Amino acid sequence: MEDLTVRSERRQVGRDAPTKLDDLLYDAFYSAAIGGSVLGLFFLLVDVVAGQPFYTPSLMGSVLFLGMTPEAVTDIRLDLVAYVTMLHMGAFGALGLGLSILVYEVELHSHHPARVVTLLFLVIEGGFLISANVFMPGVVAAIGFGRILVGNVLTATAMVLFMLKSHNPKAWDRLLHGKPIKPIY
Prior knowledge:
By secondary structure, this protein is an all-alpha fold. It has helices at 21-49, 55-66, 78-106, 113-135, 139-143, 145-167, 169-176. Helix 1 (21-49) packs antiparallel against helix 6 (145-167), helix 2 (55-66) crosses helix 3 and helix 6 packs across helix 7.
């Protein structure tokens, strides 16, 4: 008897190797959306607690687009928040694509997630610190290095956990149950 079932072209959760470009872009989009959202929400929370919602992106936009010094920024401008948000989305899109390519090509997902989080954190932190000091002098000091550090650790962790869940559901289950990712024999 002939098999008449229709096979899906889309990979299922737990896949090991890419089958199409759309799978790579799927991972890039979602990891970027998750990472960018975590960082944006973290700084929104920090700004709300400080009594100045949207201060951080407004500060960055004022320094980057208007050439102001961080000390001169007193008002929150929503147009600059929107510009920085677009820039933020583009940067995380590129970061998500880079992470997806690394996961596929180098198979970072087969290593312990802590190593991948550390690597991704170093890329995010280094990239931001270098670009902030070149294009937005004084912003790191105004925002606070500790806040940037915590935000980037949360971002890297969220992106790597998405990749782990997406590519290795057995390892994800082991992580949720407090077991080593790879069984120790």
